[in-house]
Each structure stands twice: as C-alpha cells, then as structure tokens.
Write a structure and sequence with these properties.
Blueprint lengths: L6 H4 L19 E2 L13 H9 L11 H11 L6 E4 L2 H12 L5 E6 L4 H8 L3 E6 L8 H6 L5 E7 L11 H10 L5 E5 L14 H4 L6 E6 L12 E4 L2 H10 L7 H12 L1 H24 L11 E5 L4 H10 L2 E2 L1 E3 L7 E5 L3 H11 L5
Parallel strand pairs: 1-10, 3-4, 3-5, 5-6, 6-7
Antiparallel strand pairs: 2-8, 7-8, 9-12, 11-12
The structure holds pyridoxal-5'-phosphate.
Length: about 350
Amino acid sequence: MPLPVRPAVARLPVYLPGKPAPLGPGGVSYKLSSNENPFPPLPGVIEAAELACAQMNRYPDMGNVAVTTALSEKLSVAADRLAFGTGSVAVLYHLLQAFCEAGDEVIFAWRSFEAYPIAVQVTGATAVPVPLAPGCVHDLDAMHAAITPATKAILVCTPNNPTGPTVPHQKLADFIDAVPDSILVVVDEAYVEFVTDPQAARGMELMAGRPNVVVLRTFSKAYGLAGFRIGYSVADPEVTTAVRATALPFGVSLPAQAAAVASLAAEDALLERVAALVSERDALAAGLVGLGFDVPDAEGNFVWLPAAGATATYAETFARAGVMVRPYAAGNDSDGVRITVGEPAANRLVLEVAATLPR
Ligand SMILES: *Cc1c(COP(=O)(O)O)cnc(C)c1O
C-alpha cells in the first residue's frame, strides 16, 4: 500500500532553484539565475551575525523582538503589524495556511513568482493563474473578473518576478477598492528597494484604511541576506496574529535576526549599493533594447528577455559563456529568460553574449 500523501501535495509543481554558475572561457563564471545581490553583506553585518553565533546553544528569540523594534521604527508601523519568517516565501506560506483550505481559490498573475502555485496548493486551495497583459504587466481587470465566492486571496507581485514591471499605484488602489474586503490582497514587494518608477504601487500606503492588504518584504534581495532566510509581512494586527499562529516556532535564527538589525542600521551603504545596481540594471535593459530585444520595464534587480521557442538556446548560449541565467520554458510564446543584474563585468558579458543571440 502506498502511504497516503495528500492529493494536493502529490500534485504540487516542483520549485526549480536557479542553477549554479557554469565555467566559461578563461574561468569566467557568473550566477545570474536567482536574483541574488552581488555585493557582500553590508558593513557590520558579519560581525553582528558572528556575535549571535556564540549563542547557538540557545533557541532564538521567538518573538523576533530586536528586529521587530528596529523595523517598526524604520517603517513607522506598530510592532503588532509585523510578522517574520524564514524568508518572505515562508511568511506567504504561513499567511495562506492561516486563511485557505481545500475549496478556496487564490488568484495571481502568470507568469509570476514560481513559489505562488506551490504555496497555494500546499494549503489544498486552488491556484487561479491569470495571464499577464501585453508588456508583461498584471491584467487587473482580468484578475478582478476571476474573483468567485471561493476567492480567499489575490497575490500581486510588484515589481513582477520574473518579468520586471510594477503595478501602478492608483490602479492597484482602485483594484483593491473594487475587491470584496473579505479577500486578502497580498502585495509582494520583494524588490521594492530597486523601484524607480514614481507611479509604482506603494504597498505600505495601500494598507491605510484597507485591513485586507498584506505587504510582503524580504532581506534576501536588496539587503543581500538571501542565504540567511529572513523576511516579513506588514498587515492588520489580526491578520498578523494569524500569520504568527501558523509560523514555525523559532524559525528565524538568531544570526539572521542580528544580521537584519545590523543591515537596517547600514542604510547609507544600502542606498549606495541599490543605486549602483539600479544604474547597472537600467544600462543592461537599455543595452538589450538597443540590440533589438523587446525588454519589458525592469524595476527589480533583473531583466526579462523574451525568447519564446528560443528560450533553451538562449540559456545554453549564456551558459557556454560562463553566465547562468534562469530559463522559463513552459512551451509557449511567453517563454523567456530572466537575467539578474550582477557585477559590472557580468552585465557587460551579458550584453556581449546577447548580441550573438538569434532574434
Ligand atoms: C525572492 C522573492 C521573494 C522572497 O524570497 P525569500 O528569500 O523567501 O524572502 C518573495 N517574492 C518574490 C516575488 C521573490 O522574487
């Protein structure tokens, strides 16, 4: 007799992590497949984490008190609106687990973050993907039309991973106001620090007077702590209590909490690095457009290269040059590769290789 794995789990799509960098000519090797930060940890972060390591015989602070206090001050939000997890993906799992079960539906744009369908289906709920509109942007009208009495949550990724554009602030505000307020609207702002479009959605502002809005943020991308696993939600206190209730006890390690606090204290260095990455991103996107690629608006630390049927060829061509990119190959015209903005030399190489690609 096979052991009875839940049917919802047996049907889960598999999360494909970004592959490690291949070795190109002359030992060149860049991993641009996971939207990681090419900079080392911010000043003071390694020291703070090391100090915390001395307490590894103890369980971490389950209340994440130090980082809650630091963040509450920085964001000017009450501590009872902040919930932490081992990355904002974990927080999303906790949130969906608190609100969704079999028979429920969760709407999100597609293509979007690969973790969404998995996080939804783990709860037993049904994923309702809504195709992106031209320009690889969220189709909020179609997402609204997808709402049924079973809808429990709507996930909005802005900027959208892997395609790049943000959702405009006013459009998202109008959308949320048109959604029944019993439905959670989750605004995933994993890349918010890199956004330069003044029209882009500002999740924290959208929360005002709208208790069904949940903002997800992470220390993995701009702050460069992807390997330490810490992210958070900002939400109504009752929603926050529910997220905390389903969270794994002692999930976030003490070194991760300490690293996050130290990272928040290194604001100037953070802003400098973000500015450098943004300028590299803009140059990379402009360079690709100059080569004739139809690159959508890039507002994260990555660019989307539409490739349709040539997706595998593109990825292989980059790999031969020592650059690992992330192919998205579902077998249709919306396929392409996502390229993380890396160090300047990596971005230069991306443009060199891109110039050789068939179009
Ligand atoms: C990277 C990413 C996250 C955060 O990942 P964690 O490392 O789990 O914090 C969340 N949402 C999107 C869209 C991402 O790309």
